[in-house]
Amino acid sequence: MALMELKEAKDKFIHTWGTLATQWGINRTMAQIHALLLLSSKSMNADEIMADLQISRGNVNMNLRDLMDWKLIYKQLLPGERKEFFIAEKDIWKVAKQIAKERRRREIGPLIEAMEDLKEGIQPDTVEKEEFLKIVNDISKVSIFADNTMTSLLKSDENWLMNNFIKVFNK
Amino acid sequence: MALMELKEAKDKFIHTWGTLATQWGINRTMAQIHALLLLSSKSMNADEIMADLQISRGNVNMNLRDLMDWKLIYKQLLPGERKEFFIAEKDIWKVAKQIAKERRRREIGPLIEAMEDLKEGIQPDTVEKEEFLKIVNDISKVSIFADNTMTSLLKSDENWLMNNFIKVFNK
DNA sequence: AAAAACTTTCAGAATATTTTGAAAATTCAA
DNA sequence: TTGAATTTTCAAAATATTCTGAAAGTTTTT
């Protein structure tokens, strides 16, 4: 890519972030608002975001709330201001942890629950049922493994893998 | 959940797999066909799948091809049969590895590329540009870390984490 | 207490994704 | 070859998701 001006690069960042997010099952506007706030040194209010991204007030409001649920942005009440301002978590490592945590909760949790439900509902009293339960059990094990792996990766900064990473990251 | 008959449990499995898949950004029908084949001891052809899930031929065809791209199912040519039959990979650990691999490729790869592009386009000749590049660089580092972590988890069965798991899994 | 400033909600509109099914393309047996 | 069997394609229809904007709700100021 050729040299760009900052404004152009920021727009490209916001646009790219939005496009990639849809690939991850995340709403495009939510990702764009997040990108905008990530790049903004000051906190922003709803009107500023509306103007910047050219989207409606309702859309901004709902996605700001979702971003707060994900703990990727925080509300900031400025003295002397009626409006609510929002600021993004700038520590990218925290952002990544937060996203991974949320996705683990949304994607792996329900899978584990569903397999448990199925296990409980079936008695292994025929060969066919045993075969079915084998699959359910295997999925159950893999998903619990994935869940544990995520948790141990995220939980402890003493983790060897993470330390290894942090060394590189803090250079 | 109360006790269920096998048919009921299989239907629930297929339905659940489809619903969860949409949460993971995977097409519902693709997931249901996958679930159906996972639970089937015999390989199935397009007509059988159409009848079973009550979906159109075009839909079955396109999702079978996607599932083959993901390497979650294989085409099986039976002697004396004109029709193509499909069978799912039954080793759930392989299935999980395959899914993780594909998602890594789709979700992390483009992110790394996009950040590299942005880095190249901007010269750090002002404070604002330096701040921008800091964020891009941090995201770049985190995504490369995630990519490496995935790769090392998946690549080697000599990996301590995986061995640890396999011991439990093979019990 | 009333009004102004601001936030939230949500029904309908707009957009995006998935599905259908018939036509076109391909494969294979005779 | 021909034609029957099967697979693939793709435009249009159906469905699902996201967005808008005005009305309703809330908070703060006067």
3D architecture notes:
The structure is a homodimer of 171-residue chains. Chain A is mainly alpha-helical and 171 residues long. The first copy, chain A, folds into 2 domains: 83 residues, Winged helix-like DNA-binding domain superfamily/Winged helix DNA-binding domain (Arc Repressor Mutant, subunit A, Orthogonal Bundle), CATH 1.10.10; 78 residues. Helices cover 70% and strands 6% of the residues of chain A. The first copy, chain A, contains 7 helices and 3 strands, in the order ααβααββααα. In chain A, strands 1-3-2 form a 3-stranded antiparallel sheet. The interface between A and B is large, with 52 and 52 residues. Chain A binds a DNA duplex (30 and 30 nucleotides) through helix 4.
| Count of DSSP-assigned helices of chain A | 7
CATH architecture of the largest domain in chain A: Orthogonal Bundle
User: Separation of termini of chain A?
Assistant: 26 Å
CATH superfamily of the largest domain in chain A: Winged helix-like DNA-binding domain superfamily/Winged helix DNA-binding domain
What is the quaternary state of this protein?
A: homodimer
Strands, helices and their partners?
Two copies of one chain form a homodimer.
Chain A (H helix, E strand, L loop, with lengths): L5 H18 L4 H12 L4 E2 H8 L3 H13 L3 E4 L8 E4 L3 H30 L5 H29 L4 H10 L2
Antiparallel strand pairs in A: 1-3, 2-3
Helix pairs in contact in A: 1-2, 2-4, 5-6
The structure holds a DNA duplex (30 and 30 nucleotides).
